[in-house]
Design a protein that fits this description.
By secondary structure, the protein is of the alpha/beta class. It has eleven helices and 14 strands. Strand 9 (177-180) and strand 10 form a beta hairpin. Helix 1 (11-19) crosses helix 6. The structure holds adenosine monophosphate (AMP) and magnesium ion (MG).
């Protein structure tokens, strides 16, 4: 007789884990999150321990609906509500002045708090049944590639998480856009799932994007979202030559091949062709990096996509994944 399969994790089970201060990995439309009760300091502290995340890095608090905004944020929330109406549930995080009760563990010591309502049926069901805010960064170790499947969460965090809800692959695939509304001028802190152009259309004005140096300066820990392999950004024209040169130098080279590029010779270890559609590219990006790692690539060559729409988020993640790497 074969043993009965273990019970699949349920949303109800996940709510219980959250209530007793545990950690739940759950799918969102962007990437899988590692969630804890945002009003339980000890539970939030566990997120940092499990991820190996520096304590001053603030977490995003996930809410069941925009109605919860006032409970977490204060000040003039008119613009926040206008954006929430258009983009929530969805991949937009708003940084607002925190309510005094919101823990500094969640805000990284800041007077602001980052809030969003995710557009994933399982995440929303979890939030509604739980009833409170769920603090959740991506469900991976600090600095590495964000997980877009439950399998990747298991590989990255294993038993360190109490329960993993499996909602299949994430439909957006890159993290949320972070918009800071706490100061006098709104600013995009991170490009993501909602293109800046769409925010500007709703706000009726151009948005400030604080400059991020192309070549990161040390100490700013811009390295993030990195595969195990060394990721190198190259110009499109030199991609085939770099792939061949590094392969002949004895490296196992993986290539993210831009659409329309000619195929590479067989001496290149692995090449995956990127979709022309940027939304599809964003959806696949992290899974492709995982895949090339699994194939044993030592180097991954990539080019930057056009930086419009979702291309800005993809380019941002590729730059950070490549930050600090020295060309061979
Ligand atoms: P993630 O790494 O996807 O968990 O997103 C967390 C990111 O959100 C942080 O690294 C910050 O860039 C941003 N963030 C969260 N809370 C705040 C805040 N209060 N002020 C500014 N940025 C924040
Ligand atoms: Mg992350």
């Amino acid at each position: 007789m074969t043993p009965a399969p273990p019970d699949l994790p349920t949303v109800e089970g996940a709510v219980e884990v959250l209530r007793r201060g545990g950690l739940v990995a759950f799918p969102t439309e962007t990437v899988y999150g590692l969630g804890a009760d945002a009003s339980n300091e000890a539970a939030v502290a566990r997120i940092f321990a499990v991820k190996g995340r520096p304590p001053h890095h603030p977490l995003i608090v996930h809410l069941p609906s925009a109605e919860a905004l006032e409970a977490w944020a204060r000040g003039d929330l008119a613009a926040a509500h206008r954006l929430a109406e258009r983009f929530w549930p969805g991949p937009l995080t708003l940084v607002l002045r925190r309510q005094p009760w919101v823990s500094h563990r969640v805000t990284g010591g800041a007077e602001t708090v980052a809030l969003r309502v995710p557009a994933h049926p399982l995440a929303l069901e979890l939030l509604r049944r739980f009833g409170g805010g769920i603090a959740a960064p991506s469900a991976n170790r600090f600095g590495s590639v964000s997980p877009t499947t439950a399998q990747h969460v298991r590989q990255s965090l294993g038993d360190a998480v109490d329960l993993i809800l499996d909602g299949g692959p994430c439909p957006v695939g890159v993290e949320s856009t972070i918009l800071d509304l706490s100061g006098s001028t709104p600013a995009v802190l991170r490009p993501g799932g909602v293109p800046r152009e769409e925010l500007e259309a709703v706000l009726g004005h151009a948005l400030l994007v604080p400059a991020r140096p192309n070549v990161p300066s040390p100490g700013q820990h811009p390295r993030h979202y990195s595969p195990t392999a060394t990721l190198l950004l190259v110009e499109r024209e030199s991609l085939p030559w770099e792939a061949i040169r590094l392969s002949r130098a004895g490296r196992r080279v993986g290539v993210l091949l831009p659409p329309g590029s000619p195929p590479l010779p067989g001496e290149v270890h692995a090449a995956v062709r990127l979709p022309a559609d940027l939304a599809e590219y964003a959806r696949q990006l992290y899974a492709l990096l995982f895949h090339l790692d699994e194939l044993g690539c030592q180097v991954i060559l990539a080019t930057l996509p056009p930086e419009e729409g979702l291309g800005a988020a993809i380019a941002d993640r590729l730059r950070r994944a490549a930050a600090g790497e020295t060309p061979f």
